Amino acid sequence: GEAPSSTFVFVNASRENDAVPVEPVSLKTPADVTASADGKHVYVVASSDSDDHTLSAFSRDSVSGALALTSVITDGGNSYGRTVDGLSGANCVTLSPDGKHLYVTADRYDNGSTKTGAVSFYSRDLLDGALSFVGVIRNGDSNGNRTVNGLDGARSLAVTPDGRHVYVVAYSRGKDAVSLFSRDTTSGVLAFLSAIQNGNQSNDQAVEGMDGATSVNVSPDGSHVYVTTFYNASILVFLRNSASGALAFDSVLRDGDLNNGKVVNGLEGASSAVCSPDGRQVYVAAWARNHTLSVFVRNSTSGTLAFDSVVRDGVRDGDRDSSEAVDAPNGAGSISISPDGRYLYVADYREDKVSVFSRDLVSGALSLASEVTGALDGAHSITVSPDGK
């Protein structure tokens, strides 16, 4: 059936007439968007080659979903007496589960001679949603008694459900990594703990298949971490120690692998992934070749994934011989799921739309329900308001 009309999805865009519906708001080269747990505020990071790097805050009307700009933080600007740093090349923005802090990854931090990656953090007023800059950690920094590594090309960030740890993946040929930080739940400050790079030993085996890391996700129970990759066309599974946050490499699934009696397909150009709220499935969006949305069944105990099906542009449910066409996302850049798990949303930057899929709550199977167009030129990042409206 159709997605409920009361559902509002915030999508940022990257072409001419950039906008964030509902009620278009003009922004220059927005990169990512997130919404507060109470649904009252929305935050967007934007970064351009013209040294225009910003973090914008919006208030959100809980009835209409309309956005109103409340503030803009600029890289190099002043934030309550501190010089803002770490927004150059901003590409991902995430709020902590308690809503007290906001984190931004950036892949083009320029320290005067070398461009590398960074994670910046902000405190957030729970009433009015206002942000204030707290600090930044850059690749190569001394942090405590450790030297930060694994942030060169920082691309995506995830905070654990318990709010104690933060994981960052870096997209950097030959240096792809997933980094672990502990989080001070009072101040929001991060402390670097470790990084696992492609080829490192972990859990008595070599980490493989992490070339071109594009996204990182933590399972709802906090027991497992999933990383998607572009160049290796894969999804990696890591076991997580809930006390220390330490990761142990478990397994990897690549496009073309034989798994669960099926040939895995739909991972070429994997760009984004999301776990269902019940933890039973993992969905991966990819834009290479025929542009796909893949479904994996998750073992809630081991965290391992079993390939189930794929919705491929022009082909229904991965049946390569089917004559029944499906208008799947042609340029899937970002994926999000409703809080109740009933709908999946994909931002399509090539066809300038949002594809809405209904999700079977038992099997996890997807079927195209509707498409949203208008003011979505270059749509590539999406979030659903946590209040489900």
Describe the protein:
This protein has a single domain, classed as YVTN repeat-like/Quinoprotein amine dehydrogenase (Methylamine Dehydrogenase, Chain H). It has no helices and 34 strands. It has strands at 9-12, 30-35, 41-47, 53-60, 67-74, 78-79, 82-83, 90-95, 101-110, 115-124, 131-138, 142-143, 146-147, 154-159, 165-170, 177-183, 190-197, 201-202, 205-206, 213-218, 224-229, 234-240, 247-254, 258-259, 262-263, 270-275, 281-286, 292-298, 305-312, 332-337, 343-348, 353-359, 366-373, 381-384. The protein has a 4-stranded antiparallel sheet with strand order 2-3-4-5, with no helix packed on it. Strands 8-9-10-11 form a 4-stranded antiparallel sheet, with no helix packed on it. Strands 14-15-16-17 form a 4-stranded antiparallel sheet, with no helix packed on it. A hairpin with a 5-residue loop joins strand 30 (332-337) and strand 31 (343-348).
